[in-house]
Amino acid sequence: MSSPQQKVQQHPLFQQAQSKAEYYLSQLDKELSKYPILINFEKRTQVPKTYGFLGTVTLLALLHFVNALAAPVSNLIGWGLPAYLSFKALESPGHDDDVQWLTYWIVFGFFNFLEGFALRIVLYYLPWYFSFKTAFILWLQLPAFRGAQTTYFTVLKPILSNISQKTRSGHSPSTNDTVTAEGLRDRVATATSE
């Protein structure tokens, strides 16, 4: 006679769900194997990187459900990793990663500036705001999505260009006031070479 647990494990739906879960875990393991830091984590702790990743994501999700910790966790995600990667970008010889992180910081700063004005209203109408904010921040950060560049070119650049044109039309700069991007670059290059 078989126990109720054995009956459940022998059920075709349970076996199908188990095989699907194993498939998705193996796919996630393949993706996570691209990151050396996760491979080192697995070697040092003897915890499979897949379970470490899923545990971290689950912990962050639980912290979001505890509303008092949602804002600090969201801001940490928006600041911690980007600050480290910005430091690495400054130290690297190429400029592509510099553009990625400079654009991210412009968009992140503008977003936090707007958030300062409307946070109470937004939290009133959208109680899970910080979960959405965290997803938005991750979308901005991840190079696969290029969310920071998309937001900058579709939202911020038109606004800033419009403001810049209005200030130019209202103010007639003298030749001493006009600074071009090339002139500014030349001044910075001269100052750093001295």
Describe this structure in words.
The chain has 194 residues and is mainly alpha-helical. 9% of the residues are buried. Helix content is 82%, strand content 0%. It has 2 domains: 12-65, no CATH class; 68-157, no CATH class.
State the gist of this model:
This protein has nine helices and no strands. The protein has 194 residues and is mainly α.
- Strand/helix succession: HHHHHHHHH
User: Would you report the number of β strands?
Assistant: 0
Query: Quick one: biggest sheet?
Result: none
Instruction: Look at the helices and sheets and give the structural class.
Output: mainly alpha
Mean pLDDT: 82
General form: extended
Tell me the strand percentage band: under 5%
| Computed Rg | 24 Å
> What is the CA-CA span between the terminal residues?
87 Å
- Helicity, as a percent range: over 70%
**Oligomeric description of these chains:** single chain
Uncertain regions spanning at least 5 consecutive residues: 173-178
Can you tell me the number of structural domains? 2
List the total number of helices: 9
Structural topology:
Elements: H1 4-10, H2 12-32, H3 36-45, H4 49-65, H5 67-91, H6 96-125, H7 129-141, H8 147-170, H9 181-193
Question: What are the key terms here?
Answer:
single chain, mainly alpha, 9 helices, extended
